[in-house]
Amino acid sequence: AQTVTQSQPEMSVQEAETVTLSCTYDTSENNYYLFWYKQPPSRQMILVIRQEAYKQQNATENRFSVNFQKAAKSFSLKISDSQLGDTAMYFCASSGSARQLTFGSGTQLTVLP
Amino acid sequence: NAGVTQTPKFRVLKTGQSMTLLCAQDMNHEYMYWYRQDPGMGLRLIHYSVGEGTTAKGEVPDGYNVSRLKKQNFLLGLESAAPSQTSVYFCASSYALRGRQPQHFGDGTRLSIL
Prior knowledge:
The structure holds two protein chains of two kinds.
Chain A: E1 3-5, E2 10-14, E3 19-21, E4 24-26, E5 33-39, E6 46-52, E7 60-61, E8 64-69, E9 74-79, E10 88-95, E11 101-103, E12 107-112
Parallel strand pairs in A: 2-12
Antiparallel strand pairs in A: 1-4, 3-9, 5-6, 5-10, 7-8, 8-9, 10-11, 10-12
Chain B: E1 4-7, E2 10-13, E3 19-25, E4 31-37, E5 43-51, E6 54-57, E7 65-67, E8 73-78, E9 87-94, E10 104-105, E11 109-113
Parallel strand pairs in B: 2-11
Antiparallel strand pairs in B: 1-3, 3-8, 4-5, 4-9, 5-6, 7-8, 9-10, 9-11
């Protein structure tokens, strides 16, 4: 079984600043994938970034990047130059041979003007 | 393309009533999933399907049934609704199970059981 833990229920950041959301996971799989999804008040689930566990290079998508520490089973999300539109619930998730996405409990991020 | 469409978007039921949630995708995805989202928790997998005519149980399958008669549709049924099934339900689809391609989500169905 896989578990995903997000220990920060809420965070806030000033507009244009940088914020890091934490995520740890546990898995017995050798080949797995990690994701960050964003859920704004509209309730849509939007993929932010994806990391393949066998790739050592950290994934980057514009202002979003991850710090993937495989040995520590850590997968944090860094948002640079935060924008008001980044306000949302952020979910970390893992996917492995169990054939499902396992989600953390989420971090509510508020970007302050 | 519409992507993943869920019907209905909102529904209120009385305890013991039955209903079916419909998920339709137009991306020719093989794999489809039903999740529920409760306050303070992430999404949890109810059932999933790896192809037309096949279904499997996820993490929280009790009280639900599913069917995948057509590749593009995945139905979630509640035979006798209970207040514990009050939740937001999400459908998702993808090309591959093992995460090589991300899951695409519908907009959710808010279901309240009185």
